[in-house]
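Sample 3 of the quickstart, ligand glutamic acid:
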Amino acid sequence: MKKVRTRYAPSPTGFMHVGNLRTALYEYLIAKSQGGDFVLRIEDTDQERYVEGAVDVIYRTLKTAGLKHDEGPDIGGDFGPYVQSERKDLYLPYAEELIKKGHAYRCFCTKERLDALKNTEEFANGGYDRHCRNLPQEEIDKLLAEGTPYVIRQKMPIDGTTTFVDKVFGEITAPNSELQDQILIKTDGYPTYNFANVIDDHLMGITHVVRGNEYLSSTPKYNLLYEAFGWEIPVYVHLPLIMGKDENGDISKLSKRHGSTGFDDLIAEGYLPQAIINYIALLGWCPDSNNEMFTLAELEKEFSVDRISKSPAVFDYAKLEWFNGEYIKSMTVEDFEKIARPFIRQAIGDKPLDTLKIAQILQQRTTKLTQIPEVIDFFAELPEYDAEMFINKKSKTNAENAPVMLKAAYDELKSLPEWTNQSIHDSLIGLAEKLAVKNGTVMWPVRISAAGKKVTPGGAVEILDILGREESLSRIEKGLEKLK
Ligand code: GLU
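Result:
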């Protein structure tokens, strides 16, 4: 059996949409699940759309996502070059071969003529009237001798149908009469995507072509090219659209108004690459089991084309956030601290606080890293707060006992010989016992005075431990002042 080879063939636009990333992921998984190769090819034949630095975005995304390619512009391989603009001269001879075989022709139509066509009813929406399809050879020779610019067009069959099988969408038949005589080589000598993708996929030995279903309608044209050359047609795997949920409950193609659609934007919003990958693996593919959590290595084993669905997948940000929370919870606290540190520092600046301890109280409740600064802002500075906050029914604190509890706690804490989580804990619990009150009756006022907030990550003990003796006592003094 032939070795499976897939290719990810992005156009360098400078932006990695989650749909593109899913395509890359599925190509990677289809290759890896069958011991195959995953190839990266940069499709930059559309020079007008060239964006500076865009190729780096592609490399960086694949690297961050863990999708290691086996061949590509940066690492080479036996089928290079892997950038289409560097392959420029290779396409024309193939187009000329098609002309010889009667499957393509030179079209000398001027821009003016083509523009005028658009004013006709038949070609108002584009298309070409096949004006140059049957030019007499003498005229072609004359135009060539005069150096008239031309494009090369594919000569589509006028009647009959073209049928092919897609692994996801099944058998598809298109009437040939609907196929335009599309351009294969432009006047600047560059191939169009429509031509280059076929030549490159063949020359690079690609066995599985995986891409968005917007290419489904063009596939008959590609197959006619494969047939004209007598080449083997690859396995097609067209992927369903990714949709977003509108405010009114309808679904429409995923776009900015639904939320972030770019990989970089999702990362900046605090999602982890592994969570994004896990989530988008499930956008169109359904595992054999009920399990939803998959590392990339597990996906490499589990993935199968047969379980890709053709119905549109809806991107659910809440679900992604759930995955993210699960990934965060499953990390070691040291690893979590590393990724959380920039967000912690955003809140506490360069204050000498122990970021590992802060990470510890955050880890179990964080579902997006960007939530962090807001929930720990009180470490940087005690916020303004109302004395009313000391009163809490559940902790059985009221206007009378709150000052008593806080003062007693203050005295205990002040006399502590060492300031550790354990010593703070033991002294406050011991105090509650001594006063015969619920732990909460002591802890609540202490925490309010230390944080100035009702909801905090961590309890009184953790917060005091992180703040340190001096700052803690000073905050409690302020609380006592407030309660006077
Ligand atoms: N360059 C095309 C794109 O970015 C690739 C389509 C394909 O995979 O064939 O959409």
